[in-house]
Write a structure and sequence with these properties.
By secondary structure, the protein is an alpha/beta fold. The chain has 27 helices and 22 strands.
């Protein structure tokens, strides 16, 4: 079996995929792999593989069966144990992960949950910030099913929580400390979660903010204190893996500890015993992330083999680690961390003695390794993020040695010194030196991330093309290893990768996408074959005045959560024209953030909108960054077409940027005539139909989110739309859409699509192809 455990490991992996996804691709992969397994004609291997597959099926089946909730929707009172490592306080909101110990009268519960709570005052916030130990709380509130994906290709929060065995979020109304004197024992204080928190608090107190954030990240896998922009920079240049504990870190620890122990005269046997005790404890203190688990278990298996004088090959240790990991948590296969960690480590093992050992120059060999690992990671990164950066090929050559030989030793030294020499001159000098080094590193990362054309936006690639790309990558790597047919495989790789990168951008089908941005508007129009991309409004959240302590630093925005990911998932890197219908924040609030991530060529808006201060300030920022501004009215631009053959119908004169001054666009897109009305109210609607009495409208974007101030009886009776689109937030405070408006539309037998009930709306069309297999109209939720 030596060297052949990989067959069993891959068999167990495919079994897990089949059981958790029931997708036909999983069945196909398992079937093909079993044929390959049988073709080895190794009876012992086949028998062992079947046994391990049977155990895997048993464990995965049990995990899948047990991954269900025991809580009931009507329950209001809960006893919850807080995990201090999962407590997040931002402004006036706290969020924490915990375990429900009791719900109502049911005490036989142990189920994970996410709790959200709005703080009442600054004193309460200060009290929560001091919570650093495991505690139990009595919580009243209402259970809510985690939100489903409401937009095309958007992150599915409900699915993510389900795979982490969480089925509910709890909107807490009151939280009170549960008084239980017996609980505060010596062993409770030895709880790993408490020890971890105590260490993190000590690091914060002993070092500067920047230094502590790196010590906590590199040694204890806590990235919460690293600035979002810094993390984004590392991600954009392809070295985000340096900020997660991986095999590189664990091997550094093992090599360092082994060297120190041997130098002071500790025997190999005692060194091994220390590592066997130390590594699991260290893994617990870091939270047992996927990369940490893989690195520690792999090292323990390898060390144990050497200890009993039965060396285990790197391939076999990798395989046994994968099998054990699948037995413990099969749902981890969906994580990008799992996919990259195991795939890249397997690549290093498979090609370490052939492909990666041909150059005598360390720098050339490093470039070779970095290029191959970047190539392999591209399909996975594109699948999850719809983009990838080739900059990692070069960045890894610079930053991997820097972190390995300088940053890691410095952080370890400072961590140990913070307990032994805190307050000394030497400690402060070392900390200041590290602070300056990290500042230089962050500055360098930010500058490299600005390098143009370093990132390719692929969009969501069709599954067939995704599989084809993986196959071609494998063919290319085999050709490199065998030194045969390299040119042919390279040409094939270039062709497939070109299609992979540009397929979505030049998709033969066009679409109109009304995004679900909550209580706001955002409509994307993408023409076939990449002829043009246009956006009508950006959405935005209306901000209410708050005290300083209530303001959230890391509050997610509509742009980061919905607008930018969805647009990128369509392969879009540039928007030809952005239309802002008027200056209200729920229509233009995300404009500045959008323009920071996706190139905007031209901004079009009604004259008078700049009288709104927020829009004026944003427009000036965009103009400074090279965006062309165009203020228009229907009177001055009657004969000019915008976007995909759209005509400006309103406003006729220069207005004040309010609802009745909204930009109204009309034109044919695909097979239908569309009318986009912004927030025009009844007075504007009546003037509009008076100016254009013979307007043919198939699809109406209902004005002002379905408010009773718009979509008047006379207006609707005159245009008689076949389909009405209403963009409004779920359970919004304005009670949009209004019942009378819905009634008027229903009287005309108009089909209504609502983002609050059906999520985003999608119309797909083609000017050249006749594809009857596609539906013209689709929604995400229904």
């Amino acid at each position: 079996m030596k060297g052949y455990v990989l067959f069993s490991a891959i068999s167990c992996l495919f079994c897990t995929i089949v059981l958790l996804t029931t997708h036909w691709v999983g069945f196909f992969l398992l079937f093909m792999w079993l044929i390959r397994l049988i073709s080895t004609r190794r009876k012992k291997l086949i028998i062992y593989s079947c046994l391990l597959m049977s155990v895997t099926v048993l464990f995965v089946g049990i995990e899948k069966y047990n991954n269900q909730t025991n809580l009931l929707i009507g329950e209001q009172l809960f006893l919850i144990e807080l995990d201090p490592n999962k407590l997040k306080i931002d402004g006036d909101q706290i969020q924490f992960g915990g375990t429900v110990k009791k719900a109502g009268e049911n005490s036989a519960i142990s189920e994970k949950i996410i709790v959200f709570y709005r703080l009442s005052d600054e004193e309460e916030k200060n009290s929560w910030e001091k919570k650093k130990e495991v505690e139990e709380f009595i919580v009243t509130g209402s259970l809510t099913k985690p939100e489903k994906n409401r937009n095309l290709n958007q992150f599915d929060y409900q699915q993510y929580l389900h795979r982490n065995k969480i089925h509910w979020t709890l909107e807490a109304e009151t939280i009170d400390t549960y008084s239980n004197i017996q609980r505060q024992t010596f062993f409770d204080r030895l709880n790993v979660k408490n020890i971890r928190q105590a260490i993190l608090v000590h690091i914060e107190k002993a070092t500067t903010n920047r230094v502590s954030s790196y010590i906590k990240t590199l040694l204890f896998a806590d990235t919460s204190s690293i600035d979002d922009q810094v993390m984004s920079g590392y991600k954009e240049i392809g070295i985000i893996h340096l900020l997660s504990i991986s095999g590189l870190h664990i091997q550094f620890f093992i090599a360092g500890l082994t060297y120190i122990f041997w130098r002071i005269g500790v025997t190999r046997e005692k060194t091994y015993l220390f590592l066997v005790l130390f590594l699991p404890v260290y893994g617990s203190l870091t939270g047992w992330g996927i990369s940490i688990f893989r690195a520690i278990v792999t090292s323990l298996i390898s060390q144990t083999g050497s200890y009993i004088r039965r060396p285990i090959s790197g391939l076999d240790t990798w395989s046994w680690t994968l099998i054990i990991g699948l037995w413990i948590d099969p749902y981890q296969i969906f994580s990008i961390g799992f996919q990259l960690s195991y795939l890249l480590s397997l690549t290093l093992i498979l090609f370490s003695k052939s492909l990666f050992n041909r150059s005598k120059s360390n720098s050339v060999n490093g470039l070779y390794i970095s290029s191959v690992l970047t190539l392999i990671s591209i399909p996975i990164l594109s699948f999850h993020f719809f983009e990838f950066s080739w900059m990692g090929i070069v960045a890894n050559l610079i930053f991997v040695p820097l972190f390995t030989w300088i940053v890691m030793p410095l952080t370890i030294m400072l961590f140990i010194s913070s307990y032994l020499f805190s307050g000394t001159l030497l400690f402060h000098l070392s900390m200041n030196l590290t602070e300056k080094l990290l500042e230089i590193i962050e500055w360098t990362v930010s500058k490299i991330s600005l390098f143009p054309y370093s990132t390719f936006v692929t969009g969501k690639v069709p599954f067939g093309l995704f599989i084809l790309t993986i196959i071609v990558v494998i063919i290319f790597l085999i050709a490199l290893e065998e030194q045969k047919k390299i040119n042919r495989s390279l040409v094939l790789l270039i062709i497939v990768f070109t299609i992979f990168i540009y397929y979505q951008k030049y998709d033969p089908f066009g679409e109109v996408l009304m995004l679900d941005v909550g209580q706001g508007d955002a409509i994307l129009i993408k023409e076939p074959f990449g002829a043009g991309v246009y956006l009508i409004d950006t959405g935005g959240k209306v901000a209410f005045e708050k005290e300083d302590w209530q303001i959230r630093e890391n509050q997610s925005t509509v742009a980061s959560r919905v607008l930018i990911p969805v647009i990128k998932s369509l392969g879009v890197t540039q928007i030809d024209q952005v239309f802002i219908t008027h200056g209200d924040e729920d229509h233009m609030g995300e404009l500045e953030e959008l323009a920071q991530s996706i190139t905007v060529k031209e901004l079009i808006f009604p004259e008078g909108t700049t009288k709104k201060q927020l829009f004026y300030d944003t427009a000036k920022i965009l103009e400074k960054n090279g965006v062309k501004l165009k203020a228009i009215t229907a009177k001055n631009n009657q004969k000019q077409l915008f976007g995909p053959s759209l005509t400006v119908l309103w406003p006729i004169e220069v207005g004040e940027g309010g609802n009745n001054d909204s930009l109204v666009l009309y034109g044919k897109v695909g097979n239908y005539y569309w009318l986009f009305t912004g927030d025009v109210e009844e007075a504007g609607e009546l003037e509009l139909v008076a100016f254009y009495p013979h307007l043919k409208v198939d699809i109406l974007k209902v004005g002002h989110h379905g408010s009773q101030t718009s979509t008047s009886e006379k207006f609707i009776q005159q245009i008689k739309p076949k389909i009405a689109l209403i963009s409004c937030g779920l359970n919004n405070r304005y009670n949009h859409p209004n019942g009378d408006v819905l009634g008027r539309l229903a009287d005309l037998d108009t089909t209504i699509y609502r983002t609050d009930l059906q999520g985003s709306f999608r119309y797909t069309y083609s000017n050249y192809l006749n594809d009857k297999t596609r539906k013209d109209f689709q929604t995400i939720l229904e």
